[in-house]
Design goal:
By secondary structure, this protein is of the alpha/beta class. It folds into 2 domains: 169 residues, P-loop containing nucleotide triphosphate hydrolases (Rossmann fold); 120 residues, no CATH class. It contains 10 helices and 11 strands. It has a 5-stranded parallel β-sheet with strand order 2-3-1-4-7, with helices on both faces. A 4-stranded parallel β-sheet has the order 9-10-8-11, sandwiched between helices. Helix 9 packs across helix 10. The longest helix has 23 residues. It is globular, with a radius of gyration of 21 Å. It starts with a strand and ends in a 5-residue tail after the last strand.
């Protein structure tokens, strides 16, 4: 039986093909748009072929059978397969922009009058189909994928270039499959809260190096900024309290078989305070947990 299975789902246009290519680079045997009905038989076939790492992408093109996936994953887990679920999404504005660039048609763009639609909102045998606009298609897709999203680790690709998404996938999947992976991420509130965050901490009330002329152009990874923040008791109190909260709940999250936990720390610009705290906390937790770090506004 294949020892590792990565299942990628998510919004059309969110970067699933890029993620699949990144997994190919890591030695996974990858299949795009596998019908959910074939999931278990496909994994069985790969077992016979001695494939140890398999990655599969599924999306709304298989909407009629997506409801089968949770039960199938449960059966595969009972066979001691390490399964990782990744859900890629982007905000609506980003998806609309990407579709306008490629001029592709959304897979849910074709509709039918309500009297002939089935319960999922898709066409029956109508001979007079109508066309959904792009915004309507995207919102319907979110509804159809909601259950899979709830089960998965979410990656928001709205602000990610393809190269950065590939690096992010490499870091996530490169971590040991059987261990909980803790991700600390810095961000700027002015650019929105990361939708994939499990916990969000606001540190905008802390002293801000941005207003120090010799520190403004630096980041929280630079020694002068770190030294300046080290001297403020409020910054150290915040670091200690975040650390205590995360430490208290990680064992329970691990027992709940969580694959990933993302702790997002935000300040105004995502350059100094949040970056400093992410660096500090990631170093602290890396002693006992598989720990990754990401600085969204710094592009890594």
């Amino acid at each position: 039986m294949s020892s590792e299975l990565v299942l990628i789902t998510g919004m059309s246009g969110s970067g699933k093909s890029v993620a699949l290519h990144a997994l190919e680079d890591l030695g996974y045997y990858c299949v795009d748009n596998l019908p959910p009905e074939l999931l278990i038989s496909f994994v069985d076939l790969e077992n016979k072929l001695k494939a140890e790492k398999v990655a599969i992408a599924m999306d709304v093109r298989s909407r009629g059978a997506l409801h089968l996936v949770p039960a199938q994953l449960k059966k595969l887990r009972e066979r001691n397969i390490n399964i990782r679920l990744l859900f890629l999404e982007s905000n609506t504005d980003t998806l609309v922009h990407r579709y306008s660039e490629t001029r592709r048609r959304h897979p849910l763009s074709q509709s039918t009058p309500p009297s002939t639609a089935n319960p999922t909102g898709e066409s029956g045998n109508s001979s007079n189909p109508s066309i959904r606009n792009l915004g309507e298609s995207i919102e319907l897709e979110r509804e159809l994928l909601a259950d899979l999203r709830e089960m998965s680790h979410i990656i928001d690709t709205s602000l990610l270039k393809n190269s950065k998404l590939q690096s992010y996938i490499h870091a996530l999947i490169g971590a040991p499959a059987a261990a909980l992976t803790l991700m600390f991420e810095s961000f700027a509130f002015k650019r929105g809260i990361p939708v994939h965050a499990d916990y969000v901490f606001d540190v905008r009330m802390l002293p801000n190096p941005h207003y120090e002329s010799n520190l403004k152009s630096l980041t929280g990874r630079d020694a002068p900024v770190s030294h300046w923040l080290d001297q403020h008791a409020s910054v150290q109190a915040m670091a200690q309290q975040i650390s205590q909260f995360v430490s208290n709940w990680l064992p329970a999250l691990d027992e709940d078989h969580r694959s990933y936990v993302t702790v997002a720390i935000g300040c105004t610009g995502g350059q100094h305070r949040s970056v400093y705290l992410v660096e500090k906390l990631a170093t602290e937790f890396s002693t006992n947990w598989v720990t990754l770090k990401r600085h969204r506004e710094l592009g890594d």
